[in-house]
Write the structure tokens for this entry.
Amino acid sequence: MPALFSDLPSLGALRVFEVVARHLNFRLAAAELGVTQAAVAQQIRGLERALEVRLFERLPRGLALTDAGRGYSETVRTAMGMLNEATRRLRPAPSHITVSVTPTFAAKWLIPRLGGLAERHPTLDVRILATDRLSHFHTDGVDLAVRYGRPPFGPGLEQALLMASDIIAVASPSLVAALGPPEDFASLERYVALSDAHDWWPSYRAQVYPGHPAVCARSVQFNQTSLAIDAAIGGQGIALAERAFVAQDIDAERLVQVAESHLRPDKAFYLVWPRKGRETQLLQWVIDWLRSDAGDSKTTG
């Protein structure tokens, strides 16, 4: 008598297939799985050979599921979800909550406030996953994420507004004293524009100095907002940053807001968590605390 499930591909290959089918991109799938793009492509080729079915069409700009691949992906995703749920029920509920945030959000907003959470809930074990990569809740074991954007953030996800986006211009007090406040376009040009991946400067200059070039004469680009803020504290120029990220530096007089004008993007910070995730008291504690502290920061920022 043949062994049960002897015709099934390996679970690892099916997991890779599910991720690739979701992203339709080998590079993004490799980033989520933490492997090389070549390893992902090799797994998919091996799966197609084993099944003797083409699952993807290779296109000049990515992938597309074949009809067979589309139907198979829906079944595999359902089966993976059932396996994940069955495994979760076998394990005792963990006593920790993993929160995914960007490095800047962690360094400039979350970490300075963690002491307050520990005082309110001393038995709570919070784990911070600080990464610029978009974390996957099930694969990375994430319970709660802070995401910047506009809802909805994906199927099967709950969301709650954490705080609005408010971009202000800041510099060190010593630099402003040396160069003078940037009250007009000519005085602004005396400063180096410290920019990050959001690149707020063109929008800011168009709003505050209409009719003048949107491109800064002198600028330094950073891949993270926290680096631009640190450069501003060090007297390197003017940074555009979230008010919430620089509020404590302004209170400590490490930075000053150099102009009353500010940007209000149509995006905001949201708390996001799986609709079918762990609905524990621990998770609710963290959500309530984050929203409460964000509300407090609005009154002090």
